[in-house]
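Retry 2 of 3 after timeout on previous attempt. Resubmitting structure tokens to design endpoint.
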């Protein structure tokens, strides 16, 4: 009777170890699956953040150059500049006049896991005021940055 009891205890301990190993394996496989999905979602989030930054850049270019004749002077679609050449852009400028704002939309597209993804941002941009559509942006005189800005107060501490 003692031998059977000892053998039964060993069998139960072995069965407990096998069940624990199976539960641990299932838990670890679920954890690895969650980790891989989290890494994929983080990479997709980075691509979406990059697309938002590129859309903002395109809208700022329209804002600076003016929406009224942007299409005649600059391309409305194409690939983004390096290092973002895997992203493409397409601008749509509609409506607007000197008294009403233009409806400007930019769509950024990219490939992700074999699928084309896109993000679209739209806003209203007013026409540029003034006669000169692209004024010169050079300073009237050269600025010597090694000595500070001409006419500026000397830095704190007394040294000019």
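Retry 2 succeeded. Sequence:
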């Amino acid at each position: 009777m003692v031998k059977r009891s000892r053998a039964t205890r060993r069998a139960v301990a072995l069965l407990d170890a096998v069940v624990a190993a199976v539960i641990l394996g299932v838990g670890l496989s679920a954890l690895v699956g969650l980790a891989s999905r989290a890494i994929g979602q983080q990479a997709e989030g980075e691509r979406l953040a990059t697309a938002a930054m590129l859309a903002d850049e395109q809208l700022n270019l329209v804002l600076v150059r003016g929406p009224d004749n942007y299409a005649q002077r600059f391309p409305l679609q194409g690939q983004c500049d390096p290092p973002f050449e895997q992203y493409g852009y397409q601008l749509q400028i509609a409506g607007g006049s000197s008294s009403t704002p233009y409806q400007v939309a930019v769509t950024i597209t990219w490939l992700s896991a074999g699928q084309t993804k896109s993000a679209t941002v739209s806003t209203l941009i007013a026409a540029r005021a003034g006669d000169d559509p692209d004024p010169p942006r050079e300073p009237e005189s050269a600025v010597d940055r090694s000595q500070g800005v001409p006419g500026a107060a000397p830095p704190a501490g007394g040294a000019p």
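Attempt log closed. The longest strand covers residues 102-112.
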